[in-house]
Structures are given as structure tokens and as C-alpha cells.
């Protein structure tokens, strides 16, 4: 599926100050629907801060964020999630004393059973929604090769498997935009390839759009359609992987690490 020319996410002059420190400085870019967009830069360049501003975990000092044409600037995370944005975190955030299935079911939104009255009465529609959610969870787990771990406690899984659970949980709400913060860090090459194939398959078959922060340049260059580069909170370049690799400012700021 080719990316649409219409932007799904628009970031306009996004700025965030922490006291006298400017973590993000008038950052702007657009992500077309159906694309895989990369965000790279040295440690401390503001990448995760941009994630937190887009998803409502931080409120911007200046600038606006638009999703599907709607201004979502400063909305709380739960409202932004309902618009169709899901994210993972740099550090894995699974519930280790809950099973993999229970972790995934937490990602489902707008369930009738969450209403106290509906939960008590438990009409057939509540049970149907629960069955559908369980079926979707099993389907997603089978795609990432974790079908065998459906009833395993997350705390018993490897770090790489927990990352896969977190990514799969983000998909349980059927979001249009999936924001991945270092999805392949700490993972062996075999599982990295599985994650990349998973992302490409979701884009191809379901039209998902991705915003990816990643330090592994081989991953980002082979995965993304376009890439924006941050340095000291400012966007210093944006373009295709080939354009980014040939950009002198990027090579200088990123210590020559931007190699295809």
C-alpha cells in the first residue's frame, strides 16, 4: 500500500522548555497516511520528548499538533489514544504479574463491559466483545510468534518477548498511527527482522502508519520512507534515507553513524 499524500499527523513549530532548557525547538514535520516515518538524532536530541508531546504526556510550550485535521495539542493521553494513536515506550512497560493475554486485553478501548451496569448484567453483546478481543489477541500473537505464551506471565518472558508484547498491545486498539520508541533495542537480529517484517506487513495489509525512533541506522534506513533528524531539539534535515545519508549536516551531527 502506497502512502497517501494527505498528512495523517502534522507537527507545527513544536517547542518544549524545561525551565531554561529548550528540549524541542520549533520542530515541524508531516507524516502521510500509510507511511513509515523515522525520527533520529543523537542522545538528548529531543526525540522522546516529541513523542511525549504528540501523545499528551507533556504539554508543549509552543506549537500545535494535528491528527486527521483535528487539533489535539495538549489533550490528555487517553483522549489522544481514542483518536487513533498508540505508542510504545523506550523502556518496556508490561505488567509482569499478569499474563500475556491480560496485558493485551488492557489495550482494547470502548468495551461495554467497562460500564458498571453492563458489567453486572453481562448481556450477550458484552460476551461477544470479549470473545472478539481474545480472538484478535491470539491472531496478533501468532503473527509475532508468541502464540505459545498466551497464558504465560509477562515477567517470565525475555526482554525481547516483552517488547513484542508491548507492540502487540499497542495494536489491540486498532490505531491508525503507531509510534514506536526504539522497538529493536536490546533484541537479537533474528527478532529484529521479525519486528521489521511485522511492521511492513501491518502497513501493507492494514494501512497502518508508523512513526519510529531508532538508533540502529541499518534498521531505520531499510524501514522508513522518510526520515527527520533532530539535533539539540531542532530539526536539521528531512528526506528519504538516501538524502539523509548524503546530508553533510547529519553526518556531522550524528558522528558519521548514518550509513546505509
Structure description:
The structure is a single chain. This protein has 260 residues and is an alpha/beta fold. Helices cover 37% and strands 24% of the residues. The strands form two sheets. It has a six-stranded mixed β-sheet with strand order 6-7-8-3-9-10, sandwiched between helices. Strands 2-1-4-5 form a four-stranded antiparallel β-sheet, with helices on one face. It is globular and about 55 Å long. The chain starts with 6 loop residues before the first strand and ends in a 7-residue tail after the last helix. The model has no long low-confidence stretch (mean pLDDT 86).
In terms of topology, how is this protein built?
Layout: E1 7-18, E2 21-32, E3 36-40, H1 47-54, E4 62-67, E5 70-71, H2 77-83, E6 85-87, H3 100-105, H4 116-121, H5 124-143, H6 159-171, E7 177-181, H7 189-206, E8 209-213, H8 217-223, E9 226-231, E10 234-239, H9 241-245, H10 248-253
Briefly summarize what is shown:
The protein has helices spanning 47-54, 77-83, 100-105, 116-121, 124-143, 159-171, 189-206, 217-223, 241-245, 248-253; strands spanning 7-18, 21-32, 36-40, 62-67, 70-71, 85-87, 177-181, 209-213, 226-231, 234-239.
